[in-house]
Specification:
This is Cyp305a1. It is a peripheral membrane protein. This protein is α+β, with helices and mostly antiparallel strands. The chain has one domain: Cytochrome p450. Helix content is about 50%, strand content about 5%. The longest helix is centred in the middle third of the chain and has 31 residues, at about 235-265.
Length: about 500
């Protein structure tokens, strides 16, 4: 009986090894799977050597002669889509609107599967629709948002003036300004921004999180048990700390809103502010269904989604734009000349240069587009999940396969862009001297899963840059040489650098 039992165990182990190494029928090409771990170890090793997973995917695309790659990370099937045709198809098809349900994504949302960004199905559709409607009601993408941007831009200019042209790292100042605009729409107020503020501490934690993980979630996504073995090295402790501080900060704000709302209702008055939190609290009160998805946890996770979306990508784009302007004085001079001509040739020359006036600033608009195309700070977007078995690019995609989308492969496509690895804003200027659109330019994604904060991002990037270039000459301190090579992570970030803001 002992030998029979041993034989059964051996057969079972061998069968498990063979199953774990088997590729699904007609699965996209890619590296061979190792038993149990799939491609995880090879993926981590070669991504570090390549300078990031986005570059590795392009190397593998050439190696396997395919713009669709099939991998296995841990027990999870992963498909990577490269090139304009496949990237566009994934973003626009309903079958790819799902989100994976793994340990890392649940850890991101404090152990839940709630919010908007990391959910799908009825919950995602219902709350995305509600949140976008309420954000528009409080001014998102409208005049009220532009007024908040104007206020924050003026505050930023005052801060830059106080530096007296001393060398500074601009990224933290920019992140505070962008988040304050967003927080006014969510909570009806700014976040304090002194040196020891909650905002600075949260931003530092967010920056560390971005550098430690990648879009596939790092090792925690494939091997959650590693949190017990190496909680610090895997980033588990960092995310727990960030979650704890964010949760406390959000709940304090929600609690204050709840008290104010109750007081107003007792006095039969309207809420003191029209913001997203009040809208959610009122919706929660109006729900009579015991199974309603409008609850406090969902509210916290929705706020978290907006907070994460607005905390880094927008400020890093402005940060990169300032770095380029400091390195390219010719571009800075061209943009300043355009601003001077437009801001002083009209009767409303003193008006704040909102995004609604961008048609007067063709070179500034083209410059911003080139910053987004050239640096592609979100080179891999997603992850998506196949809601049912389907086909993509002639290959079979099993249900629940994770899909990663390579925007970098579109923004640097040598078949479409002339000299894509050169920074040339003029590629977005047409024969008449106006800024032109391009179907290969998609920094915020496409379809119903496109970035939640695109309106805020576009308005902040344009208005902040116009105001800074209008009032300051941006120069590099002596000996400062910024790097165009960005640091990999969930998003790409520039290495720390310093510039001087010299008053014009």
């Amino acid at each position: 009986m002992f030998f029979i039992l041993c034989a059964i165990i051996v057969v079972y182990v061998i069968y498990g090894l063979l199953i774990s190494m088997r590729r699904p029928k007609n699965f996209p090409p890619g590296p061979a799977f190792l038993p149990y771990v799939g491609n995880t170890l090879q993926f981590r090793r070669e991504a570090r050597a390549a300078g990031g997973q986005h570059k590795l995917f392009e190397q593998w695309s050439e190696r396997y002669q395919s713009q669709l790659l099939g991998l296995k990370l841990g027990q999870e099937y992963v498909v990577v889509a490269l090139g304009h045709e496949l990237v566009r198809e994934v973003q626009l098809q309903e079958v790819f609107e799902g989100r994976p349900d793994n340990f890392f994504l649940r850890l991101r949302t404090m152990g839940t599967r709630k919010g908007i960004t990391c959910t799908d199905g009825k919950l995602w559709y219902e709350h995305r629709h509600f949140a976008m409607k309420q954000m528009r009601n409080v001014g998102y993408g409208r005049t009220q948002m532009e007024q908040q941007i104007e206020h924050e831009a003026e505050a930023l200019l005052q801060q830059l003036s106080r530096t007296a042209a001393a060398p500074i790292e601009p990224v933290n100042w920019l992140a505070q300004s962008v988040l304050n605009v967003l927080w006014c729409l969510i909570a009806g107020e700014r976040i304090a921004s002194d040196e020891d503020s909650t905002l600075r501490r949260l931003l530092e934690l967010m920056n560390r999180r971005s550098r430690l993980f990648d879009i596939s979630g790092g090792l925690l996504a494939q091997y959650p048990w590693l949190r017990f073995v190496a909680p610090k090295r895997t980033g588990y402790n960092l995310i727990r700390q960030l979650n704890s501080e964010l949760y406390g900060f959000f709940m304090e704000t929600i609690g204050e809103h709840r008290r104010q709302l109750q007081l107003c209702q007792e006095r039969k008055q309207d809420p003191p502010e029209n913001d997203l939190i009040y809208a959610y609290l009122l919706e929660m009160q109006s729900q009579t269904d015991v199974n309603s998805t409008f609850n406090e946890t969902q509210l916290v996770m929705t706020i978290l989604d907006y907070f994460i979306a607005g905390s880094q990508t927008t400020s890093n784009t402005i940060n990169l734009a300032l770095m380029v302007l400091a390195m390219r004085q010719d571009l800075q001079q061209q943009l300043h000349a355009e601003l001077s001509a437009n801001l002083h040739s009209n009767d409303d020359s003193v008006a704040f240069p909102h995004l609604s006036r961008r048609e007067s600033f063709h070179h500034m608009e083209a410059f911003i587009m080139e910053v987004q195309r050239f640096f592609h700070i979100t080179p891999i977007t997603g992850p998506r999940r196949a809601l049912w078995s389907t086909k993509l690019g002639g290959y079979d995609i099993p249900e629940n396969t994770t899909i990663l989308i390579s925007l970098r492969s579109v923004h640097l496509d040598e078949q479409h862009w002339s000299k894509p690895h050169e920074f040339q804003p003029s590629r977005f200027i047409d024969e008449s001297g106006k800024c032109r659109k391009d179907e290969y330019f998609m920094p915020f994604g496409l379809g119903r899963r496109r970035c939640l904060g695109d309106a805020l991002a576009r308005a902040c990037i344009f208005s902040f840059l116009v105001r800074i270039v209008q009032h300051f000459h941006i120069v590099l301190p002596k000996g400062e040489t910024p790097s165009l090579v960005l640091q990999p992570g969930i998003t790409l970030t520039p290495k720390p650098y310093k510039v001087q803001f010299v008053k014009r």
